[in-house]
Write a structure and sequence with these properties.
Blueprint (H helix, E strand, L loop, with lengths): L3 H15 L6 E4 L8 H4 L4 E7 L2 E6 L4 E5 L5 E6 L10 E6 L3 E6 L3 E5 L1 H6 L8 E2 L7 H8 L9 H4 L6 E2 L3 H11 L12 H21 L6 H9 L4 H4 L19 E5 L2 E5 L11
Parallel strand pairs: 9-10
Antiparallel strand pairs: 1-6, 2-3, 3-4, 4-8, 5-7, 6-7, 11-12
Helix pairs in contact: 1-7, 4-7, 6-7
């Protein structure tokens, strides 16, 4: 499933293709949304916003199209009415005279007004968005110290969109590594220094991933490894998907474990449970 940085990059592409140009036609695959097709004709897309792992496309008619890709949804940007050869099912198409934004395979699509956005069961319960420029490390620390989250294991907590919106599986492992926090700890188990490190990493790592299109490793190190001919998978992350590979910091073999059926990775040396305060 795409995580916050990938969804925000997707929003940028959609915005570049269809924002500020009148909509020619819109196609909805779902019958209950068909009546809205005529309501969007001639409208302008005024904003495309990532909301955690969801997207909101705002129009100047006071309506917005909400979509969540879940596991299989995929946006494609094409020349107007130029459909790709694919076995995927087209769920939504937004056309102007030059470009088409096409959403395939997604099942979670809605048309919302401002009131419906405010009360939407997913959007209204989102936690702090790690890719929102207004999210601060102090706010993340306060979240970590909140009694609702204080005693939850970090492996589960960091995937909870009600806690921090936009963090997924690879970001979880990378945030914990950069913060030098063992994955099985809870916020209540962490020192003030560890909580501060977690709060900084929870913002910095997703932001870097967005800016670099997915690289969470040290940028200079990644560039050096790329120049030496290493494949992207070998230099992209600090620990994620690097089971038994040497840690870039200390050389210890990276460990892979699972929680709730989802894999995570860590360095047992850099992220030892007993860290100096």
């Amino acid at each position: 499933m795409p995580e916050g940085p990938e969804v925000k990059l997707e929003a940028d592409k959609i915005s570049d293709a269809i924002a500020s140009v009148p909509v020619e036609t819109i196609f909805f695959a779902f019958e209950h949304l068909k009546p809205y097709e005529a309501k969007f004709a001639g409208c302008l897309v005024i904003k495309v916003a990532a909301k955690g792992k969801a997207l909101l496309i705002h129009f100047d008619n006071q309506l917005a199209i909400y979509s969540h890709n879940q596991l299989y949804g995929k946006w494609m940007i094409r020349q107007a009415h130029d459909y790709p050869q694919t076995n995927r099912q087209l769920r939504l198409a937004i056309h102007n005279l030059k470009k088409s934004a096409l959403l395939y395979s997604a099942s979670d699509i809605e048309v919302l007004d401002k009131k419906a956005i405010a009360t939407h069961p997913f959007l209204s319960r989102l936690g702090l968005d790690v890719l929102n420029d207004r999210t601060t490390s102090a706010a993340v620390v306060a979240r970590l110290q909140d009694k609702r989250f204080l005693k939850r294991r970090l492996t589960a907590l960091l995937l909870d969109q009600h806690f921090l919106a936009g963090v997924g599986n690879y970001l979880r492992s990378e945030i914990l590594f950069v913060a030098r926090v063992h994955p099985t700890l809870r916020p209540i188990d962490c020192s003030e220094r560890q909580l501060q490190q977690l709060s900084l990493a929870a913002i910095a790592i997703p932001q870097q991933s967005y800016q670099t299109k997915g690289i969470t490793n040290d940028i200079e190190l990644a560039a050096k490894l790329k120049a030496k001919g290493y494949k992207r998978q070998a230099y992209r992350h600090w620990v994620f998907n690097r089971e038994e590979e040497p840690c870039f910091v200390c050389g210890t073999a990276i460990v892979k474990e699972t929680s709730g059926g989802r894999r995570y990775y860590y360095c047992p040396q850099c992220q030892a449970k007993s860290q100096p305060v």
